[in-house]
Amino acid sequence: MTALLEIERIEVAIGTLRLLDGISLTVDRGKILGLVGESGSGKSLTALAALGLLPLIGGRVTGGAVRFDGQDMGTMSDAQRRALRGRRIGFVSQNPMTALDPVQRIGAQIDIVSRLHLGLNRAEARKRTLELMTQLRIPEAAAVAESWPHQLSGGMKQRIVIAMALAGDPDLIIADEPTTALDVTVQAQIIQILGGLVRDRGVALLLITHDMGVVAQLCDQVAVLYGGRLAEEGPAAPIFAAPAHPYTRALIGCIPQDDMAKGTLRGIPGAVPGALDFPSGCRFHPRCPRASDLCRSEVPVLTRQGPDHIVACHHPEGAA
Amino acid sequence: MTAPLIRIEALTKRFQTGGGLLARPREMLAVREVTLDIGKGEVVGVVGESGCGKSTLARLILRLIEPTAGRVSFDGTDLSALSPAALRRMRRRMAMVFQDPYSSLDPRFTIARVLEEPFRVQGEALVTGQMGEMLAAVGLPASMAESHPHQLSGGQRQRVGIARALALRPDFVVLDEPTASLDVSIQAQIVALLADLRDRLGLTYLFISHDLGLVRYFCDRIVVMYLGSMVEVLPAAGAAPRHPYTQALTQSAFVPDPARRRTIAPLAGEIPSPFNLPPGCAFATRCPLASDRCRAERPALSDDPDHPVACFHPL
Amino acid sequence: MSAPVLLRAPAPLRALRRPLGAVAGAWLGLVVLAAVFAPLLSPYGYDIQALKEAYQQPSAAHWLGTDEFGRDLLTRLIYGARTSLSVSATAIAVSVFCGMVLGASAAWFGGWFDRAVTVVVDLTWSFPEILIALILVAIIGPGTTGTMIAISVAYLAQFTRLTRSQILTLKGETFIEAARSLGAGNGQILFRHLLPNTLAPVLVSAMLATGDAIILEATLGFFGLGAQPPVPSWGGMMSAGSALVFKAPWVILFPGLTVAITVVAINLYGDALIAALDIKSRLRRGA
């Protein structure tokens, strides 16, 4: 069965700056892919590329392809892409505080998605909206539908945004840091909802986050980005148990855990490079404990580390 | 037993907003009767979610805002009794590191000016070479003194903020979510730096964060706050939670290990509005163990000196 | 994110790198030079009358012609620059100073003082500047001093409001809180942090207001309320020329054009300066 979303060696540029360099990802139906990276890694750009929304920020695809359900999005017309967005691909954005229109009532904002994409009339759309809200465990859905965004808490707003993403009955949901702006207990609720969506409805989920804990909890596949390139990709278990890329390993080691002795948290020296200062060769080499001359001069290609597990490193951990 | 460095007694802060011709002013209890002792050399963590009052508490302790009730004593001296001049001198011994590295430095200042300011305020001058030392102590090159904040990364700016806080060799540093805006890899660097500095300079920290995992790694004792009240004080990072809220917080932190996935049983409901605090226990609206008594009466923090809990049904 | 002024070449110079900024800046430079070096640059004295040469068209002897008293128009235009600029610039400078003091105090102390200042500012704000200026000149009497005071007061509201709102925004910034945590007193915070960060937007606003002030000064001069004869002012020249529109149109044309071009130049240069200072994004810090 073909993957639902296939990003194949995509290159994205803004102006003359090449920000994404040969990223390949696949998201299958009923599965969750976690796209991990720190700021400047290019993960949000990847989401925009998958949605065909790069022109919004002045970006464009300069190489590679994005295929949704087998169709190349690059060769589609604008109208075809628009038909996909909202209907077959739902998007949950990062900041629930600003994702909703402050001058429209909640219900109206969800209604419009089903009216536009499913052709429902006003009454049917409202019925669907209330159903979605109840499924997302929003209490007193009818009352909330009549309220304004500013009257809701962050967690509630994010649930509304998820409802909007679901309203078109999509096959794929792209969620860009959906819980970063939320309290930890609310994050747990949202993560549970997202997991439930995949299990019960069979939607595919591309989850973009910097939080490795969330990735470990939720994701089937993990892709790690660094400096606009793919560092490592594979199923969650081997990525966490035996990370091949030094960056992945270091990143996991940056997360404070109960059983860590005090003083063992060290961080990764240096800082994430900006697009103007991408190092030559492997972009991680200035911060890598295993860097060699080869790393400084040659860009590492993706090599197979295990079944489904690929890594772009000249000296992957666990290799000879 | 030696006297604590900081003694906080029943500290309370009430805010009023709104009010005017057509609306009555609304009151919010941001911090409610917080009582805590912080010993010299301790690292005390304060953890909680939005509205818990931890940031307000930090500012009350340093007397950046005036309490509505209660007292803070620093090394035996009641801070509220100090004259402005005496308070200014006292500020040499207490400092704060702020959350947002981007707005905590004056954009028009050079780093040198930023680091000089604590001295100028106290009417002192820097000794030659001190600037370089201050920067080196936080892992920054001496040449950075001539730069402006916008030329530095978030992590570097936060290091400058730490250097500024430590300029006059304080005894006590309040860290208000010092790593919240930083990438995980930089966060770990900064935490390592803070641990290092604390060992070398014998500092006492009050470490505020929403990240329980981070607080458990870094802190000795942990104060858990919910809607302005202390609900529990964990005597050690690894101590088992006794308050249902602390338990919920613990369970909401996901471990970066897919082998240790949990079944998520998230807390129901939302954090109630601080303007409409329910009578009784503030957590009762979401607590799986809530009883009628919880809804009617507010539990006080228990007398247990090691592991106090404010709950009628502690775990 | 943008660089503050201190880092690259100063913003006024960077503004000249843009084409419109360069042209505008060149014109303004010319006007300022004319005002400063008036006696050296003028071919004649500004009050030398030669009635036989009245109403002459522009010629080799008189590049811009002569007025009804045979006075050389170019000379009067150059001295008029001196009047216009000195009156407007001084008036705006005083207005900026007073406005910043008032606005900063209102923002810093708040309470009843802030409310009082806001009420007064809002009242003044609702009157057109020309009206305020006319009323004040009527009270004080015509002449350069009267015009200066009138213009100062007319623009006071603008600078008070601007300063006040800038400082109110800055008060909430973390670096102000940080300064307080170090023990900095009110005065130290005001003069070291708040006012310097307010300066850039206020100065740009002042520059643009100078353009308006030149028009205001010309208007007052047109009504005979500005600099009194024989001191030339652009407005006064236009007033005299208005009667001669058909007979000697250059008498009104040249001063009129000069005012228009100068004000446009100020606005264009101001735009280039705003872009060079990148003020809007400076206060909007981002990751």
- Shape of chain A from CA axes? globular
Task: Give the strand line-up of the largest sheet of chain A.
Answer: 6-7-8-3-9-10-12-11
Q: What structural category do the secondary elements of chain A indicate?
A: alpha/beta
Q: How far is the first residue's CA from the last residue's CA of chain A?
A: 35 Å
The end-to-end span of chain B amounts to 30 Å
Structural class of chain B: alpha/beta
Structure description:
- The complex is a heterotrimer of chains A (320), B (315) and C (287).
- In chain A, 34% of the residues lie in helices and 23% in strands.
- Chain A is built from twelve helices and twelve strands.
- In chain A, helix 4 crosses helix 5 (122-135) and helix 4 packs parallel to helix 7 (154-167).
- Chain B has helices at residues 54-61, 84-90, 111-121, 130-137, 154-166, 184-201, 212-218, 244-252, 292-296, and strands spanning 6-17, 26-38, 43-47, 69-74, 77-78, 94-97, 172-176, 204-209, 221-226, 229-234.
- In chain B, the strands form two sheets. A six-stranded mixed sheet of chain B has the order 6-7-8-3-9-10, sandwiched between helices. A four-stranded antiparallel sheet of chain B has the order 2-1-4-5.
- Chain B is α/β, with parallel strands linked by helices and 315 residues long.
- Chain B is built from nine helices and ten strands.
- Chain C has helices at residues 11-15, 19-36, 38-41, 73-109, 111-125, 129-140, 144-171, 174-181, 186-222, 234-242, 250-277, 279-282.
- Chain C is elongated.
- The model of chain C is unreliable at 1-7 and 280-287 (pLDDT under 50).
- At the A-B interface, helix 7, helix 8, helix 9, helix 10 and helix 11 of A face helix 6, helix 7 and helix 8 of B.
Keywords:
heterotrimer; A: 320 residues; alpha/beta; eight-stranded mixed sheet; four-stranded antiparallel sheet; 12 helices; B: 315 residues; six-stranded mixed sheet; 10 strands; globular
